């Protein structure tokens, strides 16, 4: 029996912590599990139990984040647990500092103070090689790399890319996503009012007052990746801050969407391909849309994005990720 604990300073249910854990645990590679949480959570239909308070509960896997205020106490209680923290926070605050120097600098100082309270022997699991390497450089020598997976769409992809639609997805109360959506809406209003703009994901209806004739909002879809696969719009990510793996980009890839995005929208695991274009300025999105219209017809764009979707589905399954984690626990118990 593997005891799994969820812990955070914010509601976990609609975050990457919950979705990542649900995807890993759904594969049944880790064997039987018992789920605990400081919050009321449903993971794959199973309600979590109240968080244990005894050291002999032997919690082996903890889904949390590096800046969680209670992490030092949890590490002391469960020194050999794997703490799945997702990303390295200093990379995130470094990107924020470039855009908002004062906020980023203050947050970096606060982050360093919190990191100083964590035992360097803690087994932190990160979703990118870059974050893992940064953690090791800061003294966390037992840091682990556990890549993020992606769920393929349940049905087949739409017949062709919809070159008349652009889309962005995510939890829109996460500030980087919110800012990216606002930038996309302004860009569309000023430069391509004839294209359809689609926002899909948690709290997308926060933008309902900005809806115009060419804007569609979907705040409660059963599956974002299934939605994208059926529609196959051009996916535009104007994120300018953040770190860790970019699962929204992976979802757009396996859904067969061409992608226009900022460098901050990517991590090193995202392949470079003809159907992914990187832009530095918002206005570059307009130029890229024109370039695709001029140099790449709809059929070619559909074929290129389909090829990348097929390749990514094979290499980035959640089953493969869960198997890597299973191997980590097998090594620990030998």
- Sheet with the most strands: spatial strand order: 5-2-1-6-7-8-9
**How would you sum up the global shape?**
globular
What ranges have pLDDT less than 50 throughout 5 or more consecutive residues?
none
CATH domain fold name of the largest domain: Rossmann fold
* Oligomeric organization of the protein chains: single chain
CATH architecture of the largest domain: 3-Layer(aba) Sandwich
Q: How would you portray this structure in words?
A:
By secondary structure, the protein is α/β, with parallel strands linked by helices. The protein folds into two domains: 2-149 and 317-333, Rossmann fold; 162-315, Glycogen Phosphorylase B (Rossmann fold, 3-Layer(aba) Sandwich). It has helices spanning 16-25, 71-77, 89-99, 101-115, 129-137, 175-191, 224-231, 247-254, 282-295, 298-315, 318-333; strands spanning 2-6, 33-37, 42-43, 46-47, 49-50, 59-63, 82-86, 123-126, 144-145, 162-169, 196-200, 215-218, 233-237, 259-261, 276-278. Strands 5-2-1-6-7-8-9 form a seven-stranded parallel beta sheet. Strands 12-11-10-13-14-15 form a six-stranded parallel beta sheet, sandwiched between helices. Helix 3 (89-99) runs antiparallel to helix 4.
